[in-house]
Structures are given as structure tokens and as C-alpha cells.
């Protein structure tokens, strides 16, 4: 059941409608209004992978958005929750979130909250887990780092989807095969091979002002650096971004040395059950980890 399909906020009468019917240029204008970097093409990619709604005013202008992405029968992420600056502080975000919560039922939920939105999500019952570090800038020549012992790099192609999806499932905790399939179509992918088996991988695609690296899955900082370094080298002198939850260690140090310092942070939050591994699950602990997010909306 939909919480409410329309609402009166100050002098605005807003109505919810399906995002699939929204014009991409209108969605692009909405994200630009709040300083988000998404191009129309970036909106199209996330729209293909999830469901969403937009809030329209009486003359049809798109003044808000919210999306959700189902990754398992009992797990969903929420993202692309945007409210036009003219409607912020009037309750638009809460109204859209109540609609999303009604649509997702009893599922466990995860999201990445900006500083401005964190209080809203806390009031809805979401619990803060970890910080995500948005690292970006003009890439510089990365430090020369040898590959881990007994490994080699090779390009990914569609034939590798099953293997990287299995690795990603362990690291992420849910099956993202459809996401990986779509992203691989628009990305350059790299796999780190040891003894004939993929032990780490990364994707890099056009996004916003330049390119974004993600997702990145590896079991150690050394493996993560191995699959990220070639992407950095490919984009020296250009804008590059990666979102990571790694706060300390060789991997974030490598990013900073490559011209990708921490620019901003968001907070990973969950509702109904924990989303992320416990703090005891550290790099090098034996299992694969998410070193780079696919996006803040997808995790």
C-alpha cells in the first residue's frame, strides 16, 4: 500500500509518480540542483537496476526522487533520495521515505546517508554503521607497487560474470548479478588471478565529471591496490573517484598518493538488521571485502 500519493507542503501540492515515466533531463536537473554529479546517462543506469518514484508539483515539475534496489528476497538498498532545495525542511524527504518503506515491507534495508539526511533516517529507525569515504580528484601517476605473489592481471569479459558474482556475493552478502552484468557492459574490468582463480576484481566506468572505480572486491589491501592501480594510471590528469569504507591502511594511503584524497563522507545505515560485516572483519582476514562501492545508491 502506498503511504500517500499526494501531499500539500506550504504552497506546493506534490504527487508521486513512477520514475520510469520521468524525463531523464528532469532527473538530471534535480540532481544538479543539490550539487550531485550524475549525468543523464548515470540516471539511466540506476533507473534500469531499481524502482523509484518522483515527486511532481501541480505543473509537472520533478521536485523530488527516491529509489530502491532489491538484491535478495529480504534485502533492499535505498538511494537517489533527493529533494529540491526549495522544498527542503518541509517534509518532502520524509514523505517519500515513508512511501519507500511501505513499498519494501518487512525487508532489511541499507542506505548511505549524506550529512544533511542522516537525522531524517535516524528518526525513521535507521542505525549508523560505518563511514564511506568519497575519494576523488585529478589522478596522478600512481606509486609503483608489485603485484602480490603468484598473481597476474587480466581483463574481464562477460564470460567472467559467474565467477566475479560469486566473489561479490561473499563480500556483499547478496546476489548482485544483474548489477554486475549491467555495469560490466559500460565498464573496463580487471581481474587478479592466482592459481587460475579470480581472487579480486574491479570495474571502472564513466560517471559524473569523469570516471568512477567500483565495485572493487578483494581480500587484502595489496590485492585491492593491484586491481585499482591500472585504472588510476589510465586516467592520469583526469577526474577520478572511488567510494570506500577503508579508513586506514595501505589502500587509502595508495589512493591519497594517487591524487584521490578524501573529499566527503556519507554514513552507511541499516534498518531491521545489520548491513555490513562486523568491525572484526578486517582486510587480510581471509574473506573478500568490498573495497570500492558500485555507487552510494547500490553499495
From TrEMBL:
Protein name (database record): GNAT superfamily N-acetyltransferase
Pfam families given in the database record: Acetyltransf_18, Acetyltransf_7
Domain N-acetyltransferase: 14-148
InterPro entries: Acyl/Acetyltrans_Enzymes, Acyl_CoA_acyltransferase, GNAT_dom, YitH/HolE_GNAT
Sample GO molecular function, one term: acyltransferase activity, transferring groups other than amino-acyl groups
Domain of life: Bacteria
Keyword terms of this UniProt record: Transferase
Amino acid at each position: 500500500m502506498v503511504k500517500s500519493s499526494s501531499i500539500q507542503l506550504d504552497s506546493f501540492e506534490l504527487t508521486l509518480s513512477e520514475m520510469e515515466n520521468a524525463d531523464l533531463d528532469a532527473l538530471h536537473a534535480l540532481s544538479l540542483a543539490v550539487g550531485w554529479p550524475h549525468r543523464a546517462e548515470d540516471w539511466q543506469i540506476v533507473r534500469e537496476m531499481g524502482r523509484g518514484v518522483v515527486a511532481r508539483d501541480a505543473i509537472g515539475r520533478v521536485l523530488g526522487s527516491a529509489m530502491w534496489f532489491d538484491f535478495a528476497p529480504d534485502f533492499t538498498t535505498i538511494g537517489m533520495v533527493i529533494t529540491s532545495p526549495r522544498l527542503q525542511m518541509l517534509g518532502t524527504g520524509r514523505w517519500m521515505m515513508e512511501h519507500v518503506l511501505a513499498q519494501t515491507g518487512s525487508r532489511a534495508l541499507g542506505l548511505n546517508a549524506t550529512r544533511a539526511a542522516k537525522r531524517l533516517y535516524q528518526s525513521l529507525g535507521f542505525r549508523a554503521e560505518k563511514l564511506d569515504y568519497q575519494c576523488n580528484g585529478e589522478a596522478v601517476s600512481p606509486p609503483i607497487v608489485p603485484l602480490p605473489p603468484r598473481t597476474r592481471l587480466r581483463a574481464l569479459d562477460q564470460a567472467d560474470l559467474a565467477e566475479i558474482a560469486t566473489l561479490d556475493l561473499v563480500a556483499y552478502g547478496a546476489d548482485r548479478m544483474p548489477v554486475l552484468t549491467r555495469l560490466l557492459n559500460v565498464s573496463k574490468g580487471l581481474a587478479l588471478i592466482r592459481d587460475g582463480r579470480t581472487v579480486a576484481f574491479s570495474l571502472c566506468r564513466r560517471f559524473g565529471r569523469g570516471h568512477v572505480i567500483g565495485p572493487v572486491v578483494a581480500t587484502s589491501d595489496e590485492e585491492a591496490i593491484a586491481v585499482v592501480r591500472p585504472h588510476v594510471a589510465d586516467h592520469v590528469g583526469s577526474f577520478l573517484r572511488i567510494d570506500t569504507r577503508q579508513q586506514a591502511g595501505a589502500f587509502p594511503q595508495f589512493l591519497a598518493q594517487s591524487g584521490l584524497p578524501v573529499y566527503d563522507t556519507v554514513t552507511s545505515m541499516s534498518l531491521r538488521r545489520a548491513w555490513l560485516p562486523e568491525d572484526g572483519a578486517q582486510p587480510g582476514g581471509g574473506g573478500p571485502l568490498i573495497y570500492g562501492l558500485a555507487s552510494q545508491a547500490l553499495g
